[in-house]
Amino acid sequence: AEVTGVQTCALPICSLSLRAAFAAAMLRSRFSRALSTAARRPIVGGNWKCNPASASKLPELIANINACDTSKCDVYVCPTPLHVALCTGKFTNGAQLAPQNANFAGCGAYTGEMAAEQMVDMGIKWCLIGHSERRGEFGLPTPKESNELIADTKLGYLLSKGINVILAIGEPLPVREQGIDKVLEFCVEQLKPAVAHFKAAGADKIVIAYEPVWSIGTGVTASPEQAQETHAALRMWLAANVSPAFADAVRIQYGGSANAKNAPDLSAQPDVDGFLVGGASLKPEFADIVAAIAAAK
Ligand code: PEP
Questions:
Q1: Which residues line ligand 1 (CB under 6 A)?
Q2: Residue 286 to residue 180: CA distance in whole angstroms
Q3: What number does the ligand 1 atom closest to the CA of 279 have?
């Protein structure tokens, strides 16, 4: 499928000033409803974070996932590391397990870490990296994972072991308050270290989860227009800096207080290819989110 406008920007954007590139991104995003024509299979992920408190609740949460109609939408689930093995083999509809993190050095003397080799051994095909809660947001007193560690070291390591990657990116509120140019500038810095890996791996091994930090767990969702504008601009940047084919095919999820109520309007946006869902993935309404995007695409 063609992404008109992306191809024409692909060559000059590298030589333009950053400001001009972002201006071009904005221009395209204003017209993106008409420009995005790719047929991308939607994908919805459930990030259970550090929940549930008791493993006795897992059957209920697994039932929510199994209630999803996956005939027109891919589904993955990110259980807490302690619960990954308890969820293995429990999904009846093709939903995939995706751990919430990975190390970058394999098995050995890495206390508290999870290795891609262990994921491969367990039949796990996907892994989430770069969630803002691992990038040091929300005041967690853990060391921040840098853009390079996430998008180069960890991404490259996982891909080299055959694990597909959901790469989460997104800006904090002070950046959003400075406008779309700054949002793009911030997100581009999170994507830049991944470019060589994106080129080598291809779009089917990658999902990008755009998750504005100010919307995660806050009940404040990006408007459909904000989500569309940002996704379209990210896609254009990918077209220019990875390839038009990659940009056309890669799925970009929206994450941040997505729920059954706001999913239909967000799903209607042409560059929103799915959701990464936190709180609502612990509820039966998760299946409604999957149904909403499946119906829209
Ligand atoms: C998330 O943790 O990735 C997330 C989007 O959370 P929530 O849906 O609760 O905002």
A1: 47, 49, 131, 211, 216-217, 255-258, 276-280
A2: 29
A3: 9
For atom 1 of ligand 1, which residue has the closest CA? 278
180-191 vs 224-241: helix crossing angle, rounded to 10: 50
* Averaged confidence pLDDT in the chain: 89
Under a CB-based contact definition with an 8 Å cutoff, are residues 178 and 172 in contact? Answer: no
C-alpha 14 – ligand 1 centre gap (Å): 33
pLDDT at 36: 52
Whether 137 and 180 have beta carbons less than 8 Å apart is answered as no
| CB-based burial label for 82 (10 Å; 0-12, 13-18, 19+) | exposed
**Contact present, 277 and 47 (Cβ < 8 Å):** yes
The atom number, within ligand 1, closest to the CA of 211 reads: 5
Helix (H/G/I), strand (E/B), else coil: 122: coil
Cis peptide before 52 (omega within 30 of 0): yes
Whether the predicted pLDDT of 192 surpasses 50? yes
Condensed to tens digits (0 to 9), the pLDDT of residues 134-183 reads 988 777 777 889 999 999 999 999 999 999 999 999 999 999 999 999 99
Please state whether the predicted TM-score (pTM) of the whole model is above 0.85. Answer: yes
Active site residues: 131, 211
How far is residue 267's CA from residue 292's CA, in Å, rounded to a whole number?
7
**pLDDT single digits (tens) 55-98:** 999 999 999 999 999 999 999 999 999 999 999 999 999 999 99
Ligand 1 centroid to residue 1 C-alpha, Å = 31
- Tell me which residue has tokens 């990110």: 78
